[in-house]
Structure formats: C-alpha cells, structure tokens
C-alpha cells in the first residue's frame, strides 16, 4: 500500500467573471476545459476544471468564478501563494511575447533552485509561474492552434505555501505525506516526494510576522494531494487522525473521492483519489463541452442554466 502521497492532484482557486476566467485559461494559457459543472455547495456558481486532455491528476486547476462583485483577495501567510506550471526548455521567450501581446501582467524571467521561470498574474491577480524544470517533463501536452507542443504546459511543477513558521507544515509534509526536504534557498524550503516524477514539489516560503492572507478573488481556496484509490485515502485518514488532526468524512465529488483538513499553518488541504476520473459522465473527446450537474441538482437544470453565465 502507498505510504507516500503521489504529489499534487488539483488546486482550487476563486475567480471573478466566468467568461474572463475561461478566456484566459483556455485561450491565453492553452489549457483544456476538462469539466464544466457547479459548486456542490453553491450550485448557482460554476466549477471549472482546466487541465490536459484527460484531466490527469497533477494538471488540474479549478475555479469557482464568483462574478465581478467578488472582492480581491490578498496573498499572505496561511495560503498557497504561487502555482508553478512545467513548460518545455526554450519556451519562455514564446510566453513572454505572448503575454505581452495579450497585455497579461508579467515579471522578468528569474531563477530559483537553478530553474528559470516566468511569473504572470491571471485576470484576477492569481500568481502563476511557468517553470523550465531541471528534469525534462515527459507528460503529453494539450495543444491548441496557438499554443503548440513546443510551448504548451505539461501540468503542475510546484506550489508555494507562504507561512509565518514552516515547522508545523513541514511536519505534515514529511511525517504524514512522505515528502523530504530537498533544497533550501534563503527562507524558501523545497520539499519533494519521490512517489511521482512530476507535480511533486511543495515550497514553503517562511516569512516571520507575515500577515495572514485573505481568501477571495485571485487567491487559492485549497490544494488537493493525490492518492490512488479509496482504500489508500482512508488509510491516510486514519494516519492523520492518529497524528491528532481533525479531518472530514469521505466525500464523493463525482470525479474523485475526497477528505479535507486544515494543516496547522492554515492552508486547507484535500486528499483526492485518482478514481473514477473525469470521463465518467462524458467521453474523453467530449470533456468540458456540456454542463454536468451532480445528481441532486439535475432536477433544477433549467433554472441553473438560466442563472449561470453563458460562455462563448
């Protein structure tokens, strides 16, 4: 049985306008809309899933687009503050020119842990990085007419958690999840799991006295870590309880099964299974084309279709 988490499963963030979010991630960044559904707890809000062709764990960034009136969040302690995508070597010049043409806010190319990266902000201010990993990323890309395989993202490379004190979060990563401290640059600690070759990195950025972040538009709601199936999910639940943490019961999210707990640093962690995957209510070729509703909301489909913004 797995004793280590298999890296990142998905990351969920909050956005403002649904159309603007859809345009940026599918057209500017070139991701695939893998699933268009609704928030389980707020069915008048979309839940978008963007990723590769099949919605492979480790590629999925999801959003709750709460509309144009959502306040802007603030990055700070107790949050996932950076999301890094893996891109091919030699592609950063393409992305710089593309983002300049599309008037996307970006910073000059920089380097950390010996890897070059380009920082950009999405339309709501969510901080993304495109990183050329030290080890070539062999995952198959999702291509569009404007973002071909020579440049396309391969999925997540890393996340950064900002924290006022990294020790408690580091203990979760190492003692419960099977990560190991791999490198350190000043106040940035890089933890890596050997269980998977990609989407395997969590950076802890320790800033003593850092003000807590505010979760709203342009900020991360939670990060999900990956396990293979429900048996392993529940084994991790037992392990987390035995370590003295509170955690939810298993929740069926239609495309995976989940547990949630808040790590001591303040970030909401989710554990999510690979099964059953996104091709359960539509084929791989049709992913993201139709509005898919949880069974409890299917009787209200016509009302929800009237309320939810139409994408074009």
Tell me about this structure.
The chain has a single domain (7-307), classed as 2,3-Dihydroxybiphenyl 1,2-Dioxygenase, domain 1. The model has no long low-confidence stretch (mean pLDDT 97). 44% of the residues are buried. It has helices at 18-28, 92-101, 167-176, 230-242, 301-307, and strands at 8-15, 32-39, 42-51, 60-65, 79-86, 110-112, 115-121, 127-131, 156-163, 180-185, 188-192, 201-206, 220-227, 251-252, 256-262, 268-276. The protein is α+β, with helices and mostly antiparallel strands. It has an 8-stranded mixed sheet. Strands 6-7-8-5-9-12-11-10 form an 8-stranded mixed sheet, with helices on one face. The protein contains 5 helices and 16 strands. The longest helix is centred in the last third of the chain and has 13 residues, at 230-242. It holds the Pfam family Glyoxalase. Residues 7-133, 155-274 form the VOC domain. It comes from Siphonobacter curvatus. One of its GO terms (molecular function) is dioxygenase activity.
Question: Secondary-structure map with pairings?
Answer:
Blueprint: E1 8-15, H1 18-28, E2 32-39, E3 42-51, E4 60-65, E5 79-86, H2 92-101, E6 110-112, E7 115-121, E8 127-131, E9 156-163, H3 167-176, E10 180-185, E11 188-192, E12 201-206, E13 220-227, H4 230-242, E14 251-252, E15 256-262, E16 268-276, H5 301-307
Parallel strand pairs: 1-4, 5-8, 9-12, 13-16
Antiparallel strand pairs: 1-13, 2-3, 3-4, 5-9, 6-7, 7-8, 10-11, 11-12, 14-15, 15-16
């Amino acid at each position: 049985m797995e004793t280590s988490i298999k890296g990142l499963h998905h990351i969920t963030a909050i956005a403002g306008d649904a159309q603007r979010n859809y345009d940026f991630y599918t057209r500017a960044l070139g991701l695939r809309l893998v699933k268009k559904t609704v928030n389980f707890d707020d069915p008048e809000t979309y839940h978008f899933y963007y990723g590769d062709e099949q919605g492979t764990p480790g590629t999925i960034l999801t959003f709750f687009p709460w509309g144009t009136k959502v306040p802007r969040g603030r990055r700070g302690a107790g949050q996932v503050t950076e999301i890094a995508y893996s891109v091919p070597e030699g592609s950063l010049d393409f992305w710089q020119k593309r983002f300049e043409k599309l008037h996307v806010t970006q910073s000059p190319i920089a380097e950390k842990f010996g890897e070059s990266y380009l920082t950009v902000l999405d339309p709501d201010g969510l901080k993304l990085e495109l990183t050329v990993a030290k080890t070539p990323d062999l995952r198959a890309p999702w291509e569009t007419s404007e973002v071909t395989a020579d440049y396309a993202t391969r999925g997540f490379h890393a996340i950064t958690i900002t924290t006022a004190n990294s020790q408690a979060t580091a203990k979760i990563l190492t003692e419960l999840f099977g990560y190991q401290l791999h490198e350190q640059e000043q106040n940035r600690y890089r933890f890596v799991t050997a269980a998977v070759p990609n989407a395997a990195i969590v950076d802890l950025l320790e800033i003593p006295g850092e003000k807590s972040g505010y979760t709203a538009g342009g900020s991360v709601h939670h990060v999900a870590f990956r396990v293979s199936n429900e048996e392993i999910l529940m084994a991790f639940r037992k392990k987390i309880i035995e370590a003295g943490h509170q955690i939810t019961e298993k929740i069926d999210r239609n495309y995976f099964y989940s547990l949630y707990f808040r790590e001591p640093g303040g970030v909401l962690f989710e554990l999510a299974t690979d099964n059953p995957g996104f091709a359960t209510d539509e084929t791989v070729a049709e992913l993201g084309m139709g509005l898919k509703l949880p069974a409890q909301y299917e009787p209200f489909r016509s009302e929800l279709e009237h309320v939810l913004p139409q994408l074009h």
